[in-house]
Amino acid sequence: MDLGCGIEFFFYDGLKDFKRVGLDLAYSSFERSLEYGNPAENESFINADAVNLPFKDGVFDIVISSNSFDHIPEPEKCISEVHRVLKNNGKFILCVPRNLKGGKKSHIHIQTIYTTDKIRHLTENYFNIEKTQNILFLYSVLWEKVLFGLNLVYSLSLKIKNQKRIRHLYETSLYRGFSKNFSDIFNFMDDINSAVFGNIIQCGYLALRLGKK
Description:
Layout: E1 2-3, E2 20-24, H1 27-33, E3 43-47, E4 60-66, H2 75-85, E5 86-97, H3 116-123, E6 127-135, H4 137-160, H5 173-197, E7 205-212
Parallel strand pairs: 1-2, 2-3, 4-5
Antiparallel strand pairs: 5-7, 6-7
């Protein structure tokens, strides 16, 4: 299950062998996802709340929350629900931002900035933290700045062409293709940065793999 899947639910090529469920409170996320392709036979979307999951106990092997857990106003309930729907050896994979550019007032949809210690305290009755890693460090310090400029040009070009619906550059096949082709290089550099600098890094994202107790 992709918890808070947003519009990127159908982009996870590496999970095609799994029966996959995308869950989001906003049905508009699913509607926008359909612009990039119809769901396969092993894919489905559920319009539901992360603190009241509409599933039986112990049905999922993996639950992924990519940049969505920090949006949840009741994280304790969410953790309890994720624990409930995971199988005994299930994994909970979290990805959260390390900081907020412009401060929290610029990101009113984000409830909390999480550190490893905060997540450990929050999940200690349900999960063991098996691995932590700093990811997308290079994206934050380099590509994100380049992307801002490219996206500005892209949006202006759409306005000049009188496009009715202005889309972000990251929704295009060009951006997804670039990210896919260079992801191995980014991941390699992130591994080095994570090993050398550890918690000194205060940008990018914090990724954690948690095992069910």
